[in-house]
Amino acid sequence: MPPKIHSVSLSPTHSFSKRPVASITLVQGYGVSGDSHAGATIQHLSRQRTNPSAPNLRQVHFISREFLSTLSRDSEEPVNPGDLGENITTSDIDVLRLGRGDRLRFVKDGVEGEEGTVVVEITGLRNPCPQIERFRKGLQEKCVVRQKEGGRIVQRKAGVMGVVLLGGEVEAGMRILVEPAEGGRVPLEVV
Asked: Which residues form the MOSC domain (predicted)?
């Protein structure tokens, strides 16, 4: 199956979960219109206190439907799109295998070429924060992989972040085209 957008979500407040909606508008250099994390500078509250003028590398949050399904299988209650605070829930793409600088182009079915496409550049990984644990006990630990000896985190699975390069409206069902970064794959780090 070709990669697609499964669901889109936003929240105008700094609540943890975001509400699924029919469509969202991505604004170049800013993020999701009407979302509390939109802005040219950092909007994440804890990071804002330490460096309020830092560029916002977390304008759009992506997580895969397949990962949410895995979490749901391991839980008594389902984990639905938007529950973990993501703006775009993807399908049939492993967002964790993307590299820094890779670009995701969103295209409506039936549209050829670059007309009407929206582009987001991947900036890094989301660090699974304690809010995930407050949302559902035991979930934060399911969003990481730890080294057997010492317990050091070796993988984060709570999605990836990006910045809007070319804005426009996105909705469920749009195709996702991956454009690898020039110069080869650069592994993702937490942003």
From this structure: 19-179
Starting from the edge strand earliest in sequence, which strands make up the sheet with 31-32, in order? 31-32, 23-27, 168-171
Q: What tokens were used for 20?
A: 């699924």
Which of the 8 DSSP states describes residue 173? T
pLDDT of residue 116: 64
- The partner residues of 166 in beta bridges, in order of sequence, read 119
pLDDT 10s digits, 114-131: 666 899 999 999 999 889
Name the strand (E) or helix (H) holding 139: helix 139-142
Dump pLDDT digits (tens) for 70-79. Answer: 998 877 789 9
Domains with residue ranges and CATH for the chain: 4-179 (2.40.33.20)
Closest CA to 177 of 107, 91, 111: 107
pTM above 0.70, yes or no: yes
